[in-house]
Amino acid sequence: xxxxxxxxxxxxxxxxxxxxxxxxxxxxxxxxxxxxxxxxxxxxxxxxxxxxxxxxxxxxxxxxxxxxxxxxxxxxxxxxxxxxxxxxxxxxxxxxxxxxxxxxxxxxxxxxxxxxxxxxxxxxxxxxxxxxxxxxxxxxxxxxxxxxxxxxxxxxxxxxxxxxxxxxxxxxxxxxxxxxxxxxxxxxxxxxxxxxxxxxxxxxxxxxxxxxxxxxxxxxxxxxxxxxxxxxxxxxxxxxxxxxxxxxxxxxxxxxxxxxxxxxxxxxxxxxxxxxxxxxxxxxxxxxxxxxxxxxxxxxxxxxxxxxxxxxxxxxxxxxxxxxxxxxxxxxxxxxxxxxxxxxxxxxxxxxxxxxxxxxxxxxxxxxxxxxxxxxxxxxxxxxxxxxxxxxxxxxxxxxxxxxxxxxxxxxxxxxxxxxxxxxxxxxxxxxx
Length: 433
Known about the structure:
The protein is α+β, with helices and mostly antiparallel strands. The chain is built from 13 helices and 16 strands.
């Protein structure tokens, strides 16, 4: 960032207030180059489409996906005190919260140049915080840039038509010059982490659909009360709700950044998630290219991830659910994991803190794997009643066409940051058709 001239708009962004961003947040959809062909808002932009600059793009993506140094962890649970709570899946923290520090999501984005993934899920802290708790913004953004991998040329291939895109979004979503950020959660891993959480807190699964206990669970009555249960459908829905918050707050962080930068855009869910992931069944709509399977028992296809990009913690990416449990434990307790003694951290004695967590022993892993394998064998996938990979929220960013708002709205429809964006970030450039 510092190798190129810093625009005045960047400097103005640094002093933009949180309260102004909160109170000024609005969905601002009409971008330079857009057209609404009919109705009360019929309007054709007089400007050429203007893509975000590299700096603008990376600032928005960083707000949605950036690493914010070390996760502070959960300290204590009465059930297994004085051991440190060992729920977390990652040692690094990000710009958005995650249930118990599971952090199973990855962030994709697309623009005119291509389709990308930000590989930040297991990233270590890019830097320690300063004595005042601050982080260096240049390093923060550069870390995201260095962990961004291009997957393909060209925009995400999802047609701007129903049923792929909701009818009210066909004119605006994923159009030339726009940036589309797409956080995707690994719900298979999230549910697996919740099974670990449940077992640590004295709970096991119960199949409420087939009205039976997990066969063989009685073998573990020495480590858990096998009559203290959570229904499979509840655990699946609870996990999906937790992951929804993770994905939603990722986009909300980006939405606040749009206000500070003076960019248009909004967060929304009006694109078919299965089409975006690549599970529409139409080879002309590859989306993100996720592998998926179908089964007569399922109401929808089940995406599990593209090989080598974001693979679900379930078959076919692992031979069985025991293999997925082992991989999960490597993520948690292996090198770089949140509970490995050699992983740095924010504490004065990080080795002591990270070593205070109890490692999942063989019996623990056997119990988790038994429950997970039962779900997979019974329903043909894991989790049993919700998708293995989950997508619900998007963030789009674009350059706002102020003329549209001046035509239809009273003063106040956009912020001072929007009014000054072109002069602050682009030397006043506003090309006309």
